[in-house]
Amino acid sequence: MPTNPETDYDPTMGEKFIFVTGGVMSGLGKGITAASTGRLLANAGFDVTAVKIDPYLNVDAGTMNPYQHGEVYVLKDGGEVDLDLGNYERFLGVDMTSDHNVTTGKAYQNVIEKERAGDYLGKTVQIIPHITDEIKRRIREAAEGHDVCIVEVGGTVGDIESMPFLEALRQFATEQDDDDFLLTHVTLVPYSKNGEQKTKPTQHSVKELRSIGLQPDVLVGRCDDELEPATKEKIALFCDVPTDAVFSNPDVEDIYHVPLVVEEEGLDEYVMHRLGLAERAIPHAERDNEWRELVTQETDGEVDIALVGKYALEDAYISIHEALKHAGLEKNVDVNVLWVDSDEMDDAHEERLKEADGIVVPGGFGSRGTQGKIAAVRYARENGVPYLGLCLGFQMAVVEYARNVLGLKGANSAEADADTPHPVIDILPEQYEIEDMGGTMRLGAHETDIEAGTLAHEVYGATQCTERHRHRYEVNPEYFDDFEGSDLVFSGRAGNRMEILELEDHPYFFGTQFHPEFRSRPGRASPPFVGLLDAVLSETEVEREVEV
Ligand code: GLN
User: Fold this and answer.
1) Is residue 497 lining ligand 1, measured as CB closer than 6 Å?
2) Fold agreement (15-295, 302-547)
3) Is the CB of 415 under 6 A from ligand 1?
4) Whose CA is nearest to atom 6 of ligand 1?
5) Probe ligand 1: pick from 65, 74, 394, 395, max atoms within 8 Å of CB?
C-alpha cells in the first residue's frame, strides 16, 4: 500500500477511532485510561490524537469556575478547554487545538448560526440529524491525518446531557468498518463488605448502553485492586464480550504508571488486534521505552514547594502540579506540594510557607486571596527563598515590589482595586471595549524576547521563548520608569509588554506573565520550573554544608 513518507501516514488506511464512555459514576479516571491507551499506541509507532467531548452548554471551559471543574487548560491556539486535554497533551506528547474539545455549546452554536444564515431553509432543524451530524463532522475533522483518534465522552452513560453524543456515536459506529471503530466502556467494580468484587454496577451500565444501541467492545473495571479472573469471567458473560476484552485499572500511586499497568494486562495489544493495527505496530521489544524509564526511575531526595492559591483542590492547579513533577523527574527528586491558602494566611499556613524550600504563586482572577499572595511574595523576596510567580503570581510580585521597595503606597493591580492610586498592573488597552467574558483575554502562544545575559536567558537557554497566555491585565507602561535601575528587572518582553521578571541578588526570584505550566511534559520539563528546583537544590546543599 502506498504510504506518505512525510508523515508515515497511510492515506488508504483511514483513521481508527477508539470511543471511551464511562458508567456508574464520574471521576473514574476514564480520561487517564484513554490517554494511557493512546500513549501505548504511540509507543508502538502510531500517530495518536484525541478528542474530548464535554456535554455541557458552555461553548468552552473559559468561563467556568476552577472549583467546580478544575483548571481551565489553555492550548497553543488560545482554546480554553477542559483539563483532560492537558492530560492528553502530556501523555501523548502532542499539541492540540480547540477543535479537539467538542462541547454541547459549540455544536449547538454552529448549527444555530447555520440555521439563521438560512442554510437549512425549509427544514425543521433537529437534534437528530443536525446536531448529531455536526458532532460527527467535528470528530472526523479532528481525527483527519492521524492513525488513531481517541474520543472520550465526558459524563456518565444515562445522563440527559450525553444523549445526543451517544446517539452520534451510535451512528458513527454503523458508518465505520468494524475494524475502524472500537468502544471502550470504563466502569466501577466496588468491593462488598465481605471483600468480594461486585459486577452488578457494570452489568447495569452496559445494559444502559445497550438500550441506546451501543455494545461495548472492551470493558475496563476501575477497582482498588486488579480484577480477579472470576470477576472478569462474570463481566464477560453478562456483558457479552470475550473474557480477554475485560481489563482492570487498579489504583496506582502515580497516574503516569497507568500506561504500564494497562500494558501488563495487554490492553494495547488487544486494541491493536481489534483495529487491525497489530501488523503495522513496531515489535514489542523495539518499542519506545522512554516513558517507562522516566516514570519508574529511583528518586534521590525530596523537596517541599509551597503552592499559594485560593482553591483547595488539586485539580484547580493540575498543570502546575504536573509541571513540578516533570521538573522533579528531570532533577531526580520527589516534589512534595504544601498547600497554602492565600485567602486564610493564618498561623498554620504561614508555618507551612516557612517550611517550604521554594514557593509558587499561581494564576488567578479577582481580588480574593491577593493579600495572602503578596505576603508570600514578600516573604520569598526578603528571605531569599526560591520563588516562581505565574501570571497573577508575576503581577503580585510587581505589586509587592512597588509597594515595599519603590515606596509606591497603595500600589495594586486595577483588577484587585479599581481605585488604587498606583495601578502598576492595569487592564490591557485592547480590553477596554470588550464586554463579553468568553474567549476575550490575551490567549494562547505568543513569543517573548529574552535579554541576553539574564537569569531568564540561563533558564531558557535561548533569547526567545514561546509560551501560552491567559490574562487581561499587564504591567502598566506608565510605571516602567519607576522600575528602571531597580533590582527588579524585566528580562523578557514582547514589544511593550513585560513578560518575565527577575530579581538581582536573589537565589531565584522569577515571574512570568505567561503560563509555562501548560507546555510542560514528562521528559520535557518547563524551564522556569526546572530553574526553581535547581535553585532549591543548590540552596539546600548550601544549608547541608553549613550544618556539617
Ligand atoms: N487576573 C489576572 C489577569 O487577568 C491574571 C490572570 C491569570 O493569572 N491567569 O491578568
Assistant:
1) no
2) yes
3) yes
4) 471
5) 395
* Domain ranges, ordered by start, for the chain: 15-295, 302-547
Q: Is 320 in the pocket of ligand 1 (CB under 6 A)?
A: no
What homologous superfamily does CATH list for 302-547? Class I glutamine amidotransferase (GATase) domain (3.40.50.880)
Amino acid at 119: D
Tell me which residue has cell 522512554. 290
- Name the fold adopted by 15-295: Rossmann fold (3.40.50)
pLDDT digits (tens, 9 = 90+) for 34-56: 999 999 999 999 999 999 999 98
Closest-lying ligand 1 atom to the alpha carbon of residue 365: 1
pLDDT tens digits, 506-516: 999 999 999 99
Half-sphere exposure of 78 (CA within 13 A, CB side): 8
pLDDT tens-digit readout, 236-268:
999 999 999 999 999 998 999 999 999 999 999
Residue nearest to atom 7 of ligand 1 (CA): 363
Q: Which residues contact 60 (CB under 8 A, 6 or more apart)?
A: 79, 80, 81, 98, 101, 103, 105, 106, 438, 439
For the four alpha carbons of 153, 158, 161 and 166, in that order, the dihedral sign comes to positive
Nearest CA to ligand 1 atom 3: 471
